[in-house]
Amino acid sequence: MLYTEVAAILLKLENKEGTVKSLVYNSRHKNKRQLFALLCETLKYASIINDIITSTQLLKREKFLKKHMAQVLVYEQLFGKGLQVGGKYRGALNRNKTALHAALVRLKVRSKVSKNEDLLPDIVKSQVSLPRYVRVNTLKITVEAAIKKLKQAGFSLADKPSVENFASTVSALEPGQFVQDPHIPALLVFPPGTGFHDNQLYKSGEIILQDKASCIPAHVLAPPPGALVIDACAAPGNKTSHMTSLMQNKGKIFAFDIDSKRLATMRSLTRRAGVSCAQLVHGSFLDCDPGDPRYSGVEYVLLDPSCSGSGIASRLDHLTDEEGSISTERLESLAQFQLSVLRHALSFPAVRRVAYSTCSVHRQENEDVVQAALQENEGKYHLQHILPTWRHRGANTFPQADRCVRASPEQDLTNGFFVALFEKNSERVDVKEEQTTSPDGELGENVSVKKKRRRKRKKNVSVETKMEDNETCAAPGTIVKEEASSKAMIYV
After folding, report:
1. Of 324, 335, 339, 492, which has the fewest Cβ atoms less than 10 A away?
2. Per-residue pLDDT tens for 49-76?
3. Sequential DSSP letters for 363-428
4. Known catalytic residue at 404
5. What SS3 class is residue 128?
6. pTM higher than 0.85 for the full model?
């Protein structure tokens, strides 16, 4: 039952057994979106609910009720859609209905407010409502055709904002309006809360709901059609599908993830998105041998490793933390892991570009990791100056930090994010800024158009690898076991 599952997660959060999103993801409840929504709302009102439960002595009156189930039931009775349950739980709440509503009224009178939402703690009310970002899946539909279908569905396209007035334009959007993003060519921007889960474009995989900041890594990595790519921590798959659209489904992406459940979700997402050039690998990217002929020709790596998630605007873990912040020890542990996978990505013999990103606001996971990797590979790599018109740059902690980008809800209307793009020095080229078009013909960010002055170099790719690159991916559900670095990798 939904209420039982939410109550169980509330107990686990209290006991520090996981984060909101990890506990929801690992739940057996089928409707994860419904579970997450009720859990988040209950957490937002938790301090108010606890006050009401205490003042009404609900747990003393109804001795069979456990605290966390009572929290869920009181939320639904007073702030939600009303109780969606019968039996003893409905009976208990009905017996105390008058007392519960009276306690809520007293709270509002005492706080001098008239609306329930005005009772929310400042930390909840201060959260920025982000726009709804929708990436057009150009594997299935052009941007122009998607816009036409959206207009037919009742939406209206407003004038495309400039980089300078993006925030003000988007903040002024009325319900039903949308604009094209000035940085990411295939990205459309709608007002917060715009629903698409019942939209046919979403159901068919023609549009993908993806935050703007999450689109930046694939956009700046820009693997061309025919490229050999690794997505090192790939699930749930939005970045993989984004790269696939840039590659026009030509080439191959090895998409690694160690979590079988997340990989199963990714398999479903990529199938719906029409991805055919990605091969899902159930295993750790750290176990992938750069010398294996399968991977020795990889030139592009997208690395979005596990992080604190401190930049996620909808994150509610701060409501369950006594200090509302991650410990220094936890940050150090994450940073060590992040540096280890970045070090591994930079070790591939043919690699030309590595995009490193996190959804963290902490310097330890961002600039410090990038600086350490540059120092370890001194003379081998430099950072590309990505998204030159993006004003929010990396913290000034080392000479090349301003070539990275940061994003935040307050400044950029996205989740908190960090992106750096490593490029091998032997691949350094003269760069001329020009306005360019994406494969679907839409004008985008001023991107780097390269005038090549490279020395020819031998590609460390075996004939066997080239033949494998031309093979289609294994059919969904097929499992092939191979040995890589003496460790089993499962290709799905």
Report:
1. 324
2. 999 999 999 999 999 999 999 999 999 9
3. GGGTHHHHHHHHHHTTTTEEE---STT---B--SSSTTGGGSEEE-HHHHSS--EEEEEEEEGGG-
4. no
5. coil
6. no
